[in-house]
Amino acid sequence: MAAPLKLDVVIVGAGLAGIATAFRMGHDGHRVRVVDDREQSERGCTGAHIPPNATKILTDWGFKKDVESSGNPLSRGTFYSMDTGELIGRQTWREEVMRELGANQHYMHYQDLYTMLYKAAVNIGVNIRFGKRVVNVETDLERPRVTLADRTILEADLIIGADGPNSFVRRTLFGDGPVNFEGHTLFTGVIPMELIKKDTELSNLCRSDRAEWPIWIDSSRHSEGALVRNETEFALHVFYPNDELSAADDSCWEGKPVPGRPPNTIDPKLHRLVDMCPEMHRQKLIIRQGPEEWTDDSGKIILIGQAAHPIHPCWVLSCSVHLEDAETLGTLLSRITDLDQLPGLLEGFQEVGGRRARYIRDISWQEIVGPLWLSPGPARNMRDEALRKADDDSDWDDAMMRKQFDGFYAALGYNARDAADDWWTTWGLLRERSKSVYLDEILDNFTPFGITMEEAVHSHGA
C-alpha cells in the first residue's frame, strides 16, 4: 500500500537485500536511491533456495509467474552417501503440509532472482548507481547524508546500510565485531545440462520430472544440487571441512569466493559432476558477530541484511532472510505519517527482524545441517532408518504430517508481513495513542493568558 508520508531514502549496497528493499519501498511511493561500489555484473553465479517463506513474499510482490517459470519446484529431497553414492532414502514434502505453509519451495539461479528484482525496481523509478564507493556516513545532522568517493553528497530522510558482511556503514557507526572461521568451505559451480545428459547415470540424478533435490551427506560435509534456468543448468554446492583440505587451501579469503574445487575424496558420481563444472569457486564460511544495535541515536539510519545479521551463503534461508528484511521494513514504513515516527519504526524493525535473525543464527543453521553432518554411530543409523521409512508413502498418517509441518514451520512458515503487522498492532499503535494522549493533556492544560479555558468561558459569561 502507498505510504502516507513519502520518504527520501538512500540505500548503500545493491546486493539482494538492498535491491529487494529498494523495490519494496519504491513500490510504496518512497523516493529511493541506491549506490554500490561494485559493478552490476559482480553478483552471485550459483543456485538460490526459494523456500515457502520467500515464495510467499515474491508472490505478494507480483513475481509468482516469474518464480514458477525461472525456478525449479522441489517437492522431495533424495539423500545419498557422499562417500559411496549409495541411496539412503527420501523425504517427500507432503502437499497437505506445503498448503499449510502457504507456498511451495523453488530453486533458482541467483542471477535470475537478482535480475528480476533489479529490473522491477528500475521500472518503478528506483535510481541505482553502480561503481560508487561511499567514503563517509553522517547522521548527526538535520538530514543524514553519505559522501561518495567522487565527492558527491547524498542527503536523505533515511539511510539504509545494506552493504554486506564487510559493511562500511556498520564499521563507520558501530565498529566491527570478532570474526571466526565456522570450520567449512563452500564450493559452488553451475553445470550445463547438455554435459550431464551425456552421462546416463548422472542424467537420472537430475531429472526434472521428479522435482527432486539430490543431497549427498556424510560426516561434517554435504553437497546439494538442483536444476535452474528452465532446466538448462544444474547448480551444485559442496560443503567440506577445512581440516581435510590441503595446506595450500588453508588461506584466509576474507569471505570472498576464489577459484577452487573440492578434493577427489567423494562419491565418484558426485565427483564427475564437479569435473563437469566449467569453473568452481570456494569460500570459507565465516562467523561474524553482528552489531547489538541496527540503528543509532539519530533514528535516521538502519542496517539490514548481511550488514545487520551475517548469514552463511547457499543454504535454505540465505536468500529468504534478505527478502524478509525488505518486507518487514517496507510494511512498517508504509505506516509512517510523520518523520517523528521514524526512530520508533526502526526500533520496531530491529525488534521483529532481530528475533528472526537470532533464531536463524542460534537454532536454524544447526537444525538443518546438523542431521546432515552426523558421524557414524547410533544417531546416524536412526536418521538413515527414518529416511528409509519416509520413502514409503503408505505409512503416512495425520500424526506424521503434523510432525513434518511442525518441523518445517519455524524456519519455512515464517510470514514477515504478519510479523511486522503484529508489532504495529501491539506496539506501534500503542505508541501513537500514547503520544496523542500526551498531546491532549498538554492542550488541556495550556494557559497562554494565565487562565484555563474553563475559567475564560465562565469569565466571559459573567
Structure description:
With 462 residues, the chain is an alpha/beta fold. It folds into two domains: 8-179 and 288-414, 3-Layer(bba) Sandwich (FAD/NAD(P)-binding domain), CATH 3.50.50.60; 423-461. Helix content is 40%, strand content 23%. It has 16 helices and 19 strands. It has helices at 16-27, 52-60, 64-70, 95-101, 110-123, 168-174, 193-196, 200-205, 268-276, 305-308, 320-333, 342-369, 378-390, 398-412, 416-444, 453-461; strands at 8-12, 31-36, 47-50, 72-74, 76-81, 87-92, 105-109, 127-130, 134-138, 145-148, 153-155, 158-161, 179-192, 212-218, 221-228, 233-241, 258-259, 280-288, 301-303. Helix 1 (16-27) runs parallel beside helix 11. It is globular, with a radius of gyration of 25 Å. Residues 7-220 form the FAD-binding domain. It holds the Pfam family FAD_binding_3. InterPro entries: FAD-bd (IPR002938), FAD-dep_Monooxygenase_BioMet (IPR050493), FAD/NAD-bd_sf (IPR036188).
